[in-house]
What does this fold into?
Amino acid sequence: MRGGLRHGSWFALGVVHDVRADVYPMVGRRSGVHNHRMHEVKLSDGIVTLSPLRLSDVEAHLAGEDELLVRWLNGGPGTYEGVAAYFRHCREQWDARGPLRAFGIRVGGDEVLAGTVDLRFAGGGLAPGQVNVAYGLYPSWRGRGLATRAVLLATAYAASEGGTEAVIQVEPGNPASAAVALRAGFAPGRQTRSEDGTPFDWYVRDLCVAVP
It folds into this structure.
């Protein structure tokens, strides 16, 4: 991982079960997150827990990286130095309340790292109030509905931080990621192209409306 995750979703998996998280973050703007250090944010629905990425996650991330994940990453396969540098950047963004909020997706009592989900509150092509969501799971955790849960938790947090619309950008060749977006209540939107001409299908969701 040389430059971090793509601005779109890098999710790759088989079948995703339609499992929905109906519990909102344990901390947020309205529940006192400003009284906590930002990197201590922790969100859970009882199955999936989201907490900021940390340097101790580097080896687990590299161990979970496979060919499908590499396909949706920038710069090819990750290296320890590259991933560590990116995770340090993520921590700096949390500490500075920057536009990037990168979470590890954690499962079980031991909070084993199963993947990542990140929010970007600003960036190319985003209007004020829009928040980009990107996510991915490691191979052994796919097909369990965890990505849908993670997206629901992350977007609830985004709403608590002032986001009004969530955006998931998916390359047309990544239908599994599009399926997660639809299961998380997103609707198809416009198509855009990156600077190198890569097309991205947008999926959008109004964060002021609860997911049924």
Remarks:
- The first strand starts at residue 43 and ends at 44.
- The chain is about 25% helix and 25% strand.
- The CA atoms of residues 130 and 165 lie 5 Å apart.
